[in-house]
């Protein structure tokens, strides 16, 4: 009989494990070129896997280069909702600001908020938990003399306000990157600390972002 | 008795006619500052009333200054669909192009099409007949040397393509304004022919647009 | 004889006074719309007169709205050198940055330096003492979230570098305005502290700038 | 004696030939990236050599990528006047227009004229014959729907006006490219007819420009 119960017990444990592995938390990272590169070997999503408990998470990249908030809005049905995510990490904003200078097609601040809130609302309606991120950097100089610093600070604040208003977890990468650079960028360089080219993540940057993402996912348990 | 029924029959016909006049065709003009001004005395919507058969149309202005195609998208529920229109005349595009230069927040051509088609689709889903218009002008010079001529020609073509693809009536104001100026603007002036300031309609412009709108509404009967 | 020498002495004193009043230090303020408004009653140049010793300075405004550094370069012969100034206060930069967003015709950072140095060189060749100023503000928010803060910080640093390299006195209005706002703008307002409209000076702003100018002129004696 | 005179005559002819070869017409092509590439094998300057009479011309390229009219102004002493040219062909304008959209640092139309005229004046003061060119294209579509067509048409007209006012030879490449495309670009393609990428010359484009340049140089004899 003892043996019998042991077998039963083992069976139950096995079943629980099976259920766990069968239903990991599905996380979609929804963003721009930074996230598109995040799924590559060494990218932040790739690195995040090794920082998370085995078999408990399924990480999906949904980043497309050049995307602004309304690009996310336009493609969210196909690229995010169709995947029935448990958690969606929205990381966008660099192009909304950058395209003002590079092609004249950036996003007005008030429209940025309107579309951002529409994205959040629609994700929540699909029962996804939503995590917001601020845009990290266009240039790593610490004296606020990167051309887009003013706008990045403004749009980051808009995202912080949306997070607060909707009681959503926030990964404040804008603040985190600046704090990191204040410590590790004494020469006020514009790139090479966490980015390769002022925007996209180098090895340290990918590791840094992976760690920030790991922390926020831990709070969602 | 026969006479009695005849009287009854005539009465019924009269009542039906009365019902017809009680339910004029409701037309919403959906656009930017040009349309916002169109409801003013002497504006194109105001002038259009006198060009249309009495009691058969209800004309509603839904123009807001500075609007781009995605502004229309964001506010169409409240400002258009809530009014249960029979016909919606969409006239937008000047700001999608102009804001590239004036604030860095114009609309990418591909996104212009995406949002434009989304607006059309949603209006049709609400059983409204949709009329498209091309953006008329930012400057009236006829030698194609107005700064935004290239973009206006491109975005107008995008609208023509959407009209054709969806078999929708089109008021090609871009072409109509150019044709008018080729006849009436021999000195290649940038304003003062149909506009006061290169964009907004003067008296002749309001009358001209009213006539174009009258023609297209006549075809919808 | 005593009377004779008294007369001579009085004559000499009179002559000296006459020379003094006949040769006040001629200061030209060379800049944009802020300086154009500076000569108005209550403007910073007007206020500066009452802060300076009587009869020792002649203050001339040479500001034109919308001017960028290369506008100054193009008109310096007529508007500044022709007036044979002893001192030229160059205050420019807001439009070099602002026009990037408002009309797509801002000034590249490297070209800003090239023309700025050309202006300085030409003024010095005409034996004028040159005073440099940093552009004060486009928005008074203190959290570096005014859209042009990044560029204003960068271009201000370029001017500081030119001042240092050429050993020229500098009125660091960018820094002074920020310091003032950090004390007097606790609500992070974008205007109304030293400016009326984020750029142009209100009463307090004109007084503040006049005081800064008074200080630098005092050091040139 | 006859022989003696024959020898003298031959000597004189030889001397004249020597003088000719010793003093070819020195032509500097002063411009942007299109001209920078023009000196490469197969580039328009390289091709022009074979179109010109042997030994009568020295062709010098002075093109730098990204240059606008005021870049030419700033570097003309070192890069053009120092070479004591007989003829200077000025070909600029694409970046003055293009940088409005690509970096917010295009050139205002009135400033374009100011600097252009300053370049012409300074070249003429150095006894160089000056040839003007209009900017050819940013996109080869023939229906005037290339984004910068409006501005390119305007700035080309400004150059035509300067040429006319100063009685200078003009190579109207804007018009020539459009005429060529109207014949050879029936599908309204944006590139591939005379350009590789809407701006820079392909093989046909380099040959076409070389021929235009050959024609204008022939008129200067």
Automatic annotation (TrEMBL), chains A, B, C, D:
Keyword Flavoprotein: no
Residue ranges of domain SGNH hydrolase-type esterase in the record: 29-207
Keywords: Signal
Signal as UniProt keyword: yes
InterPro entries: Ester_Hydrolysis_Enzymes (IPR051532), Lipase_GDSL_AS (IPR008265), SGNH_hydro (IPR013830), SGNH_hydro_sf (IPR036514)
Signal peptide (UniProt feature, chain positions): 1-24
Domain of life: Bacteria
Designated name of the protein: GDSL-type esterase/lipase family protein
């Amino acid at each position: 009989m003892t043996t019998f119960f042991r077998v039963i017990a083992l069976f139950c444990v096995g079943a629980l494990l099976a259920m766990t592995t069968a239903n990991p938390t599905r996380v979609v990272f929804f963003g721009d070129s930074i996230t598109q590169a995040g799924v590559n070997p060494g990218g932040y999503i790739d690195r995040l896997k090794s920082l998370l408990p085995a078999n408990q998470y399924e990480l999906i990249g949904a980043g497309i280069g050049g995307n602004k908030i309304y690009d996310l809005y336009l493609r969210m049905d196909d690229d995010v909702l169709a995947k029935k995510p448990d958690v969606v990490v929205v990381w966008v904003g660099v192009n909304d600001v950058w395209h003002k200078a590079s092609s004249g097609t950036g996003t007005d601040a008030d429209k940025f908020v309107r579309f951002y809130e529409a994205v959040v609302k629609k994700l929540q309606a699909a029962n996804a938990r939503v995590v917001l991120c601020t845009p990290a950097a266009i240039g790593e100089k610490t004296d606020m003399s990167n051309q887009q610093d003013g706008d990045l600070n403004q749009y980051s604040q808009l995202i912080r306000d949306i997070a607060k208003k909707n009681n959503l977890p926030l990964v404040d990468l804008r603040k985190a990157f600046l704090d990191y650079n204040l410590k590790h960028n004494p020469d006020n360089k514009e790139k090479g600390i966490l980015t390769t080219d002022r925007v996209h993540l180098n090895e340290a940057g990918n590791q840094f972002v992976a760690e920030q993402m790991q922390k926020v996912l831990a709070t969602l348990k």
